[in-house]
Design a protein that fits this description.
Elements lengths: L1 H31 L1 H28 L4 E3 L3 E4 L5 E2 L7 H13 L4 H33 L6 H25 L7
Antiparallel strand pairs: 1-2, 2-3
Helix pairs in contact: 1-2, 1-3, 2-4, 3-4, 3-5, 4-5
Length: about 180
């Protein structure tokens, strides 16, 4: 019993440490230190450009003509959507990676499972942008928040299911770290 409690405490400590790092980075370091701020902003930039690339590919595949700016995407004839930093999935991907990294298990499995989960988050996030673009086209620029909230909840559920998948099926030997 003591070994299980120690393992749980180690897991919770690691998750908490990752959270503190994120909180300090997001709310302090990224605003105070030039190099760190540039690095943090670049991470957001990479996630933004990845989402826009996949979203544009999806819109083209669906037969929509589209236009885009640095952080915006629109189906021709609509107002489109603006993808803000809070919508790019950087925090969600970091949180997912933190959960998997913190939970005991073999490194080789973590090396493929974390990128797979981050890729899945990217695909779901891009699907959200595509759906929002289509919704804006359909409703003439005034958007109800239901599709946005639906996709947020879907991403949280999928992250939870990925974590359960990791614990129950992929990570057969949680003692090795």
């Amino acid at each position: 019993m003591e070994n299980k409690t120690k393992g749980l405490n180690t897991f919770l400590f690691k998750v908490f440490a990752f959270y503190v790092f994120w909180f300090v980075s997001e709310n302090y370091l990224s605003h105070k230190f030039g190099f760190y701020s540039d690095l943090w902003s670049y991470c957001y930039h990479i996630f933004l450009k990845s989402i826009l690339f996949v979203s544009k590919l999806g819109l083209s595949t669906l037969g929509y003509d589209h236009v885009s700016g640095y952080n915006s995407l629109a189906i021709v004839g609509s107002y489109g959507v603006i993808v803000g930093n809070h919508c790019v999935g950087f925090g969600l991907s970091y949180g997912f990676g933190s959960l998997i990294y913190s939970y005991p298990g073999p490194w080789l499995k973590k090396l493929w499972f974390i990128p797979l989960g981050v890729f899945l988050i990217l695909i779901i996030n891009s699907s959200r942008v595509i759906a929002l673009c289509a919704e804006v086209l359909k409703n003439g620029g005034f958007l109800q928040m239901e599709p946005h909230d639906l996709f947020n909840n879907l991403i949280y559920i999928i992250i939870f299911l990925l974590w359960v998948l990791w614990i129950k099926f992929i990570n057969k030997n949680p003692q090795s770290n």
